[in-house]
Specification:
- The protein is of the alpha/beta class.
- The protein folds into two domains: 206 residues, Vaccinia Virus protein VP39 (Rossmann fold); 67 residues, Helicase, Ruva Protein, domain 3.
- Helices cover 40% and strands 17% of the residues.
- The chain contains twelve helices and nine strands.
- Helix 4 links the parallel strand 3 and strand 4.
- The structure holds S-adenosylmethionine.
Length: 290
């Protein structure tokens, strides 16, 4: 296939259409074909899968997805990119292009429409070079929607990927690590330097793959309460967990009750949120609810 993404082709396409990069949409286009190969192969995408892409840009990654998967659905917010995509991707008949804000898309409906058109898929995988200004909302919306998605493989800021993968006690460990690890098993697949993009982003990037659990290894009786406790626990990192929980809005536990719940966990009243694992937060929520 003639690759859309290499530096010379990307510049030609941009000139041909007089395209102006929009900073507000986080437009940094990939121009390294090795990185595109890597994203596609590490995502596990197979020939009977559906790929859902957020932000195709000029189609650099979309093309790889189209030759690998049964079908691709790509959601792009910038209407100026639609005529360009219509041209760069014209040879591929298994791509559905949608002009919309991904955060407003009904994902279940999108998938149902693809199943009606293409038949059942073995796996449904989200694969994208994400716009960095909304990385976390996009990923958390998908995870919290409980939509049937098998995996998410995305390029994101390196520091956000590090936070998603972090373990208790590390400086990157926080509410985001716990939220992502509750729903999925994350691992960083590759680091991608700034010179692989046009224009160059200010930050380094990583490709992370999240394999979404069908059966969550951590069970909780009250998911909402557990996440409130997690948010409280990392709201002010220097405070003890007891003090963070007493002062956090929406929670109404007495100091004694919190100390008692921690003692049931075998933890001191001086402990901070960053020392607890996901399993321990789940148990703490259970003890506090009693
Ligand atoms: N996939 C292309 C590539 O790798 O070269 C472009 C990646 S660029 C980092 C992010 C893309 O997401 C841009 O095309 C941008 O216009 C699009 N985008 C930004 N916000 C979006 C949103 N809310 N919904 C859908 N697409 C969005």
């Amino acid at each position: 296939m003639t690759k859309i993404a290499n530096p010379a082709n990307t510049i030609d396409i941009i000139k041909k259409y007089d395209f102006n990069f929009q900073k507000k949409f986080g437009q940094n286009f990939l121009i390294d074909t090795h990185v595109l190969d890597k994203i596609c192969s590490e995502s596990g995408l197979g020939k009977n899968d559906l790929a859902i892409e957020i932000g195709p840009g000029i189609g650099a990654l979309t093309q790889y997805l189209a030759v690998t998967a049964k079908a691709v659905v790509s959601v792009e917010i910038d209407k100026n990119l639609l005529p360009i995509l219509g041209d760069t991707l014209k040879d591929y008949k298994n791509i559905e292009l949608i002009n919309a804000d991904f955060l407003k898309v009904d994902l279940e409906k999108l998938i149902d429409e693809c199943i009606q058109k293409y038949g059942e898929f073995d796996n449904i995988r989200i694969i994208a070079n994400l716009p960095y200004y909304i990385t976390t909302p996009i990923i958390m919306n998908v995870l919290e929607s409980h939509t049937h998605i098998d995996s998410i493989t995305v390029m994101i800021q390196k520091e956000v990927a590090d936070r998603m993968q972090a373990a208790p006690g590390s400086k990157n460990y926080g509410a985001l690590s716990l939220a992502v690890q509750y729903y999925s098993d994350p691992y960083v697949v590759a680091f991608v330097p700034q010179n692989c993009f046009i224009p160059r982003p200010k930050v380094g990037s990583s490709v992370i793959r999240l394999d979404i659990y069908k059966d969550k290894p951590i069970k909780t009786v009250n998911e909402k309460l557990m996440f409130q406790i997690i948010r409280a626990g990392f709201n002010q990192r220097r405070k003890t967990l007891v003090n963070s929980l007493i002062n956090f809005e929406g929670l109404q536990f007495s100091k004694n009750k919190i100390i008692h719940a921690l003692s049931l966990l075998g933890k001191s009243e001086k402990i901070r949120g960053e020392a607890l694992s996901l399993d321990e937060f789940a148990q703490l929520a259970e003890y506090l609810q009693e």
